[in-house]
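Hi support team,

I submitted a single chain yesterday and got back a structure, but I'm not sure I'm reading the token output correctly. Could someone confirm the output below corresponds to the sequence I sent? I've pasted both exactly as they appear in my results page.

Thanks,
R.
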Amino acid sequence: MAEMNAMMEKLNRYEKLEQAGAYLTSETRLEGGNELLHRIAREARSNGKRENFYTGVRFMNAVDEELRSKIDATFGDVYEEHEDGYAIEADDDEVRVYAAGIRGLVYGAYTLRQLGADGFLRKGLIYNVPLCSFRGLKVYLPAQEDLTFFKSFIDMACYYRYNTIVLEVGGAMEYKRHPEMNEGWEAYCREMREYSGKATEIQNGSRWAKNSIHCENGGGGWLTQETVRSLVAYCKERGLSVIPEVPSLSHCDYLLTRHPELAERTDDAYPDTYCPSNPASYELLFDVLDEVADVFQPDTIHVGHDEYYSIGVCDRCKGKDAAEIYAEDLSKIHDYLAGKGIQSMIWSDKLINCISKRGNAYGGAAHAIRDKDGNFIQFVPPTYRAIDFIPRSIRVMHWYWSMPRAYDEEYLSRDLDLAYGNFEGPGIPEWSRRLSRGVQGASISNWSALREDYLQRNGIFFNMAYCCRMFWREGYEEGEFAELAEEAFADLFRYKNLDVLSRPHIEITHATTFNRDFAWFFDGTFIEPERDELGDYRLTFEDGSETVYPVKYGENISHYDRSWTTRMSDEFDVYEFDRSLIEVSYTALPVREGAKTYFRIVLAHPFPEKKLATIEFVPKNGLDDCVIIRKVAVKE
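Hi R., thanks for writing in. Yes, this is the structure output for that exact sequence:
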């Protein structure tokens, strides 16, 4: 725990702490702030009584001149006015958390939990201000049964100091003006979710390009507007900005399931692109935008526009320039939202003439799309010239940061507000330089169910912890991957298992000889738990009592041969890394021992008063004894 605590201190941009300190206990009074801040602070307290404890924690909704001067004197003229900045000062008697608003105070409260090793907090001064202003997480709306987890995920986002949540709405929210859309969405998702992989089969089997059927959004169902309002309120109470995403032009299957007459391809059984030359397309879309704006009360709405392939196909659009079609559509939507005082944000892949290292065309470049066997499917005309026709106030989310890094300048040279999307921290080269050029930050994206197992196995939790360090700590170098990954692993393991680690528990360090290639769980590819069950641990205690603990590949164990290094891709301008290594982080702690990697798990001791006698692995699914148990330890 002490080692993990030291790693957490590295999250702080500026700190000067003594070895001496005191404990936060049930006797430590909480002053200022609100009940949310007090609840977070209580989570940082020691489990037992302590002689040496802080008498109070005070939340101060301001940073006074005296503290500003102290910060500058201690760390060297670093203080800046920033809504996300905060300071923590701990002296002989009390702890004070300072910030100008709720967001900074929430970060400060969680920092007490991050730093506290069983409630012990070192004396001194901490000052944190982020390197970038946009630190986002893009997710789907949760299923009805996952509402409680949604709130715990938002708390985790605050713990790691994210300030923006992009929530894809699509068909997953009630539309009172168009209830037929919810009915169509539910039926569509029911068909796509019939079995794992069906959505991908439909995409790949089409006579024209498609990408990403979002049937996991809302769990394939939809939430009432009242429920969505409550989720938005939960985020905003914690200082998070909430940006609803309403896919438009492309990824519009949710609009078209009951309105196929608006489709660009009238012979498409599953149309996903509306006709931008048909005024009725905007009548429907603007009705949807009105309802979303009413529920979210947002400053910004994300309107998609990515992966736009069916261009100039219908009789109305045939013969029109692709870039003009794109720009005219986006301008109409932008102007409509601007009339409501709302900014527009888009995925910006179609705005660049993107050519990879190997000369392959992507994004807004003209290119031919072929199937996996190389057979021609369709020609996609270029749209990249639209970058000079769209309104300059549109915010762009650049998810092609993994293409040649020079493409950043296409946006920056035109003074477009630029942040990265679909972000994976370990992959990006020259992070510090690119921030210095004016990039506002980045957003991690989960394109699957908003559930704990999917977020872990798609690497979202790992990237949240890893990127937090990139967003708040100066001097990031891509060569630090192994070191920062180790920090993130320890951090996540502590976050997930804090309650278990604070009481008697059993640690098992293990690996497996079983191996399977890493696979993403999105686009209708679902986790199938039975495929991952390697077997069970049967733990027997001295009096004959037994307990069973499941061993699941990809969740709490993985193959021993895992890479802790990165390499530059041959096709893209991005570092590749071993996703099978990070897949198990959070539930398990990856541990390097020479050339092998083991995975430490913990389980609450079911019989603390009894001695563990034996532990036996019992295989399942016809597997042999494929588990290597490196170490077993009982912790009091």
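A quick pointer for reading it: The two ends are 13 Å apart (CA to CA). Let us know if anything else looks off.

Best,
Support desk
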